[in-house]
Amino acid sequence: MKSLVIENLRVSREGKEIVKGVSLTVRPGEVHALMGPNGSGKSSLANALMGHPKYAVTGGRIILDGRDITAAAPDARSRAGLFLSMQYPPEIAGVTVSNFLRTAVNARRAKPLGVIEFYRLLKEKMAELKIDSVFGSRGLNEGFSGGEKKRLEILQLSMLAAEYAILDETDSGLDVDALKIVTDGINAMRSTMGILLITHYAKMLGYVTPDFVHVMSNGVIVKSGGQELAAQVEREGYGSLI
């Protein structure tokens, strides 16, 4: 069965253990919300899943559709269908959005898309996400607002047609209008992929209804449940759970 399986994962950075034994299974069509206070290990888990070199897996395994990718390079994980939407997407001077996306898309294909076919796909995806076509000619994240950066991350996710998406605080810094556009994009794709949605606040879960909610603290998942768990966090804070 297709799934992203995290088995008792332990992760360290610079010799300090941050993730202390997390187990989780995400299947296509499921949205798992991972909540927790600052410093609980959520972003460290996300980076380790994608193979960030500064995060060392010291125990456990990551299994993607039956294949052990614990030691795989980040590009191999991407080609296998894994995607990470970063909390703070970097600016890259001299690279346009369209050139970046074309390179990223073709890196995952045995037969590269031709120029006309690529731009037809890009125009279609931009229209779906209500992104002006001039966006493609801008420098990658250069001068972008927080909302524009997050919309670009969702555009990239859509263009790559990933099978599993790790969305790390995609709601961070978004106003209501930008949040609605981003979450509409997530909802449009949720039936075709497994999603691990990392967030501090229950507000985003009013726009993207999760199938499962997990609360993380001090490197471990302390409680799992449904939407009612997010509502409890909203009412009582994390103190009632940790």
Structure description:
The protein has 242 residues and is an alpha/beta fold. It has a domain at 4-93 and 163-240: P-loop containing nucleotide triphosphate hydrolases (Rossmann fold). The protein has helices at 42-50, 74-79, 97-107, 115-128, 146-160, 176-189, 227-236, and strands at residues 4-13, 16-26, 31-35, 56-64, 67-68, 82-85, 92-96, 139-140, 164-168, 194-199, 212-217, 220-225. Strands 6-9-10-3-11-12 form a 6-stranded mixed β-sheet, sandwiched between helices. Strand 9 (164-168), helix 6 (176-189) and strand 10 form a beta-alpha-beta unit. Helix 3 runs parallel beside helix 5 (146-160) and helix 5 (146-160) packs parallel to helix 6 (176-189). The longest helix is centred in the middle third of the chain and has 15 residues, at 146-160. The relative contact order is 0.19.
**pLDDT below 50 for ≥5 consecutive residues: which ranges?**
none
Assembly status: single chain
Helix content: 25-40%
Class computed from helices, strands and strand pairing? alpha/beta
Give me the strand/helix succession: EEEHEEHEEHHEHEHEEEH
Fold-level CATH name of the domain at 4-93 and 163-240: Rossmann fold
Shape: globular
Instruction: Kindly state the number of beta strands.
Output: 12
The CATH architecture classification of the domain at 4-93 and 163-240 is: 3-Layer(aba) Sandwich
Under the CATH scheme, which class of the domain at 4-93 and 163-240? Alpha Beta
Mean pLDDT: 92
Strand fraction: 25-35%
The total of helices stands at 7
